[in-house]
């Protein structure tokens, strides 16, 4: 016992390592399998909706690996610099492990706070905010590296343990603080409940982990306590990273495609996910109306059958972004003003999908109007997208509307309208070649998603008719 307590290789050590490997494999499976099954909903690699979960998985792996390498689980000689205690016990376990894992969760809670409490987009982008809140860990690691308080077994001197434990506790407290600030919000997709569950379970595990850490550092002369404490260190850390990733969901709308199915139905549009009546649906019972080409286009687009026909024509010209945008802004207008949570969800969806630079269906609007939307102080304002709609309506009148009236889409629309008006409703409304791009709910549609500010003027010609 005394030998393996010092040099590693006790039976309990191998059990703990085996459990840690199993947890890492399970973590990777849980984080990737839903996206392999639902490939069409993989988030864009440009925003935090993709990178923050990826960073969490990496931080979880480095956290477990650092414990494994620095607490003498395995028998190996630290001859090379990269096996040094200061590499694994200080830098990897701190800034690149536990610190990075907690920083990701704080970043997500910070985004929820700004979007739903402040009702505006976060003022700091994720790739800036994350390094900022990680700075205390980097500074602490640098200080320890300079002072060299570790012994040959990677254990700290007693008076260094208190500030290290306080740093761990501080980040848990900050996460609880941000979560408490949004406790009054009635979320649609259980974000707050998931965060609270994640905090409660994780805080319990962190408490056990910190206790084992203190015992392992202080009583390095008691062999059985060394073996038992390092066993608890790795086991609780393994469970912690798995629970922290699984329960505290980073992308609320992806709960629909997770391995633990929450919803009996899979929603095709954000409007359907938010319960907007008839969102994305073309109903047989809608009354046929006579379309006059001399009417203003914005008035004609209020008719769903005409809008679907015009949308199919625009998509066939690879210029349908403006019509899709009009449709989703119209759905946003059906959400009552006194329902700010649903309005914020829909607004964020529209911004992520159409407004930010490089969005999946970025619309062709001026830089000034784009920035006005991105820097708004009220995401629930009923006129937020009015200026953008006016610009896009002029583009559609110039490029699309004139050609639509002479297209087969309008001719087919008139024929079907004539049949319906004569009382012979068509059995199947399949005349239009609807585009599969219609308002699909992707992973960027969650309030955690950041990177909202464009890097410059994005006046592309997405809406030009070729």
TrEMBL record:
Domain RGS: 296-414
InterPro entries reported in the protein's UniProt record: RGS (IPR016137), RGS_sf (IPR036305), RGS_subdomain_2 (IPR044926)
Basic and acidic residues bias (residue ranges): 457-466
Chain segments carrying region Disordered: 445-466
Entry-linked Pfam families: RGS
SUPFAM superfamilies xref list: Regulator of G-protein signaling, RGS (SSF48097)
Keywords, ordered alphabetically: Membrane, Transmembrane, Transmembrane helix
TM ranges: 15-37, 49-74, 94-116, 128-146, 158-182, 194-215, 227-254
PANTHER family the record matches: DOUBLE HIT, ISOFORM B, REGULATOR OF G PROTEIN SIGNALING
Entry protein name: Regulator of G-protein signaling 1
């Amino acid at each position: 016992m005394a030998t393996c307590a010092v040099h590693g290789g006790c039976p309990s050590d191998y059990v703990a390592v085996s459990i840690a490997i199993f947890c890492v494999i399970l973590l990777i499976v849980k984080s990737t399998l839903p996206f392999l099954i639902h490939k069409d909903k993989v988030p864009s690699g440009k925003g935090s909706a993709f990178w923050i979960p990826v960073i969490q998985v990496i931080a979880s792996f480095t956290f477990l690996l650092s414990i494994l390498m620095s607490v003498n689980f395995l028998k190996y000689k630290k001859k090379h610099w990269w096996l040094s205690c200061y590499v694994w016990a200080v830098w990897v376990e701190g800034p690149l492990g536990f610190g990075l894992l907690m920083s990701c969760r704080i970043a997500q809670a910070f985004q929820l706070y700004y979007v739903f409490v402040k009702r505006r987009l976060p003022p700091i982008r994720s790739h800036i905010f994350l390094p900022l809140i990680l700075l205390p860990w980097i500074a602490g690691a640098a200080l320890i590296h300079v002072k060299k308080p570790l012994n040959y077994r990677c254990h700290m001197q007693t008076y260094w343990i208190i500030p290290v434990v306080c740093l761990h506790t501080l980040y848990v407290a900050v996460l609880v603080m941000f979560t408490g600030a949004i406790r009054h919000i009635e979320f649609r997709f259980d974000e707050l409940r998931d965060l609270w569950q994640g905090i409660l379970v994780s805080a319990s595990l962190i408490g056990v982990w910190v206790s084992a850490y203190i015992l392992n550092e202080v009583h390095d002369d008691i062999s059985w306590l060394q073996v038992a404490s390092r066993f608890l260190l790795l086991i609780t850390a393994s469970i912690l990273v798995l629970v922290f990733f699984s329960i505290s969901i980073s992308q609320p709308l992806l709960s629909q495609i997770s391995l633990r199915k929450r919803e009996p139905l899979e929603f095709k549009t954000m409007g359907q996910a938010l319960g907007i009546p008839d969102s994305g649906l073309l109903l047989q019972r809608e009354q046929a109306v006579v379309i006059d080409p001399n009417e203003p286009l914005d008035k004609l687009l209020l008719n769903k059958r005409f809008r679907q026909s015009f949308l199919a024509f625009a998509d066939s010209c690879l210029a349908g972004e403006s019509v899709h945008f009009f449709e989703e802004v119209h759905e946003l207008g059906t959400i009552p003003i006194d329902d700010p949570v649903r309005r914020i969800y829909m607004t964020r969806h529209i911004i992520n999908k159409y407004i930010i630079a490089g969005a999946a269906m970025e619309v062709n609007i001026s830089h000034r109007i784009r920035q006005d939307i991105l820097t708004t102080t009220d995401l629930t304002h009923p006129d937020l997208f009015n200026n953008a709609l006016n610009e896009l309506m002029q583009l559609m009148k110039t490029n699309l509307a004139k050609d639509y009236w002479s297209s087969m889409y309008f001719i087919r629309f008139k024929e079907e309208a004539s049949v319906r008006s004569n009382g012979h409703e068509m059995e199947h409304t399949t005349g239009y070649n609807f585009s599969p791009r219609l308002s699909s709910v992707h992973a960027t549609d969650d309030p955690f998603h950041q990177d909202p500010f464009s890097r410059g003027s994005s006046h592309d010609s997405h809406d030009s008719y070729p």
